[in-house]
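Operator note (shift B, R.M.): manual run for Deoxyuridine 5'-triphosphate nucleotidohydrolase requested after the automated queue skipped it. Running by hand, logging everything below so the morning shift can see what happened. Input copied straight from the record, untouched. If output looks odd, do not overwrite the archive copy; leave it for review.
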Amino acid sequence: MIELPIRRLPHAEGLPLPAYATQGAAGLDLVAALPAGQPLTLQPGARAAVPTGLEMAIPAGFEGQVRPRSGLALKRGVTVLNAPGTIDADYRGEVAVILINHGGEPVTIARGERIAQLVVAAVVQAKPVAVADLDATVRGAGGFGSTGLSSGSG
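Run finished. Output pasted below as returned.
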């Protein structure tokens, strides 16, 4: 377990810090830091950056992955638009969650509502190296849909 320093901004006072809902949960719940009594209504197809009221210092060598909540997606058609969103280790601004309503009805998000989950994951940086040729593989340049299909199946 690593420590995750979090600073609560004034508009998040009274809201919980991110927390795991169960002992085996992979993601910390993030909640909406909207003004009290001023919910956000997302019309079908609309998107908005919802503030969490939190700034954090993701440790070097890690990233924060902002992911959808499955219940919000299934029951209300709302998901994280850029899933997973990435919080880089050197970012120190407020974390906001870009939500989109894919459902057919308006959806209202209230202060303190769980809107996403944050997974802290290790990151390995790669050093790009230009080469003349790449090693050959069985798949080769086969792209989208080129694996897992047997001959003659749709």
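Quick read of the result: Residues 70-76 form the longest helix (7 residues). The chain has one domain: 6-122.
Leaving this for review. - R.M.
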